[in-house]
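Our consortium's second objective concerns turning raw sequence data into structural hypotheses that experimental partners can test. To show how far this objective has progressed, the report includes one record in full. It was chosen at random from the queue rather than selected for favorable results. The single chain below, 155 residues long, was entered without modification.
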Amino acid sequence: MANTELPYAADAEVSLSYDELEVLRLQYEKELSQAHVTVQTKFNFAWGLVKSPMREYQVEGVRLLQDIYRAEPTRRRECLYYLALGHYKMGNFEEAKRFNALLLDKEPSNLQAQSLSSLIDKAVSREGYIGMALAGGAAAVGTLLLAGLIRRARK
């Protein structure tokens, strides 16, 4: 019996410890102070930031990954998953979908990207249900207010 379950995109929930992220930050800042940051150091730091539960770190990680993506064509593929993940974690689901789709176009059998795609789709659906519930609640309140105004106008 074949297992059709995709490997979970664990990066969506697993963060580095403060000490682990600090090691990456110190290496990045050391190279920055020497006016030469290697692409690998920048990528490692961006990767750690994206995995963080803190939104401001995720934003910075995505910014660094976008810099790498633009400047280093040979590193684009490896940036795509973490750009998608970063946008997913920040709630930018359309951007997450876009980057993940680019990766899946290049690597249709990438199980981690397939798993992330599933997480993104679930989040978009959940967001849609919340939006429909809010719209339904607003419509109900509007109907009650209108009914109250009509009753008042008849008196």
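The partners drew two points from this record. The chain is about 75% helix and 0% strand. Helices lie at 18-33, 39-51, 55-71, 76-90, 93-106, 111-154. Both points have been shared with the crystallography group to help prioritize constructs.
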